[in-house]
Amino acid sequence: MLRREIASEKQSLILAVTGASGAIFARRTLQMLEGDARVGRIHLVVSGSGLKVLREELDLGISESAAIPSRLMGGPVCKTVYLLDSDVGASIASGSYPVNGMLVIPCSTGCLAQIAHGISSTLIERAADVCLKEQRKLILAVRDTPLSRVHLKNMLAAQEAGAGIFPIIPAFYHRPQTIGDLVTQFCCRVLAHLGLEQDEQFCWSSVAPKRQTVNSPAGRDETHRL
Ligand SMILES: Cc1cc2nc3c(=O)[nH]c(=O)nc-3n(C[C@H](O)[C@H](O)[C@H](O)COP(=O)(O)O)c2cc1C
Question: Is 8 part of a structural domain of the chain?
Answer without folding.
Answer: yes
